[in-house]
């Protein structure tokens, strides 16, 4: 008769299966959406399908960046479900603005300032930083306008389109290129830098209000 130790060993394959990459990615996405919904639990977060990426669910810098992106996708979707200058819209927009600003600042310090030193990825870094500035300007413009107006929602829709394009490009192209020039040790260190900087930025960042005039 098998001993207790032998029976425990024999049952291991069926009771302790490793989690598949697909499951890990799904869990990461659900976690990101849950963080967004904590701001306004009664507002749905229908983000739909997301661009394919190998980084979702990874416990490293790029996985953290993608999880932030999914949180931002949820916040954008939730704002789109709100009406007028409701308390929910105000709370969600404030959270979105703080998230995007702190995420961008941390990403620039942890990733793009490092990647910019490599001639093969300098253009990617400059492109990402330039888009961060444009998105920041759009946030300041929205913050300065009447949130209850139809014009505000049109401007918000433009921000949403620009930001979704930006993060799709990062996930599918720029992160892929950057990873090729970073060692696993680099990525682990930069992950720590990102988390530290984002936490500090989110605690101290102020939402600027500035109308963006057409040129």
Task: Provide an overview of this structure.
It holds the Pfam family Hemerythrin. This is Hemerythrin domain-containing protein. It comes from Comamonas jiangduensis. InterPro entries: Hemerythrin-like (IPR012312). This protein has 215 residues and is mainly α. It has a single domain, classed as Up-down Bundle (Four Helix Bundle (Hemerythrin (Met), subunit A)). The chain has seven helices and no strands. α5 runs antiparallel to α6. It is globular, with a radius of gyration of 20 Å. The N terminus is likely disordered.
Write the CATH architecture name: Up-down Bundle
Helix- and strand-based class?
Answer: mainly alpha
Give the biggest sheet. Answer: none
Helix and strand sequence: HHHHHHH
Shape: globular
Tell me the strand percentage band.
under 5%
The separation of the N and C termini measures 84 Å
InterPro entries: Hemerythrin-like
Domain Hemerythrin-like: 64-175
Biased composition (Low complexity): 7-28
Organism: Comamonas jiangduensis
Task: Write the SSE topology.
Elements: H1 4-15, H2 21-37, H3 61-80, H4 87-115, H5 122-143, H6 150-179, H7 184-204
Describe the structure concisely.
The protein has about 220 residues and is mainly α. Helices cover about 70% and strands about 0% of the residues.
List keywords for this structure.
single chain; 215 residues; mainly alpha; Four Helix Bundle (Hemerythrin (Met), subunit A); 7 helices; 0% strand
């Amino acid at each position: 008769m098998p001993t207790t130790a032998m029976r425990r060993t024999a049952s291991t394959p069926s009771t302790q299966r490793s989690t598949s990459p697909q499951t890990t990615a799904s869990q990461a996405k659900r976690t990101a959406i849950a963080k967004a919904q904590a701001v306004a639990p009664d507002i749905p977060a229908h983000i739909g399908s997301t661009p394919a990426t190998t980084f979702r669910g990874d416990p490293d810098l790029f996985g953290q960046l993608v999880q932030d992106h999914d949180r931002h996708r949820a916040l954008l979707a939730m704002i789109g479900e709100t009406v007028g200058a409701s308390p929910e819209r105000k709370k969600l927009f404030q959270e979105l603005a703080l998230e995007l600003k702190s995420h961008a600042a941390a990403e620039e310090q942890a990733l793009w300032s490092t990647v910019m030193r490599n001639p093969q990825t300098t253009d990617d870094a400059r492109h990402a930083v330039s888009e961060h500035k444009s998105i920041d300007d759009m946030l300041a413009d929205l913050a300065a306008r009447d949130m209850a107006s139809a014009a505000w929602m049109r401007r918000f829709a433009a921000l949403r389109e620009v930001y979704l394009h930006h993060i799709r490009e990062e996930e599918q192209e720029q992160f892929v290129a950057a990873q090729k020039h970073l060692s696993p040790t680099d990525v682990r260190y930069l992950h720590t830098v990102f988390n530290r900087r984002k936490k500090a930025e989110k605690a101290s960042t102020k939402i600027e209000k500035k109308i963006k005039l057409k040129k």
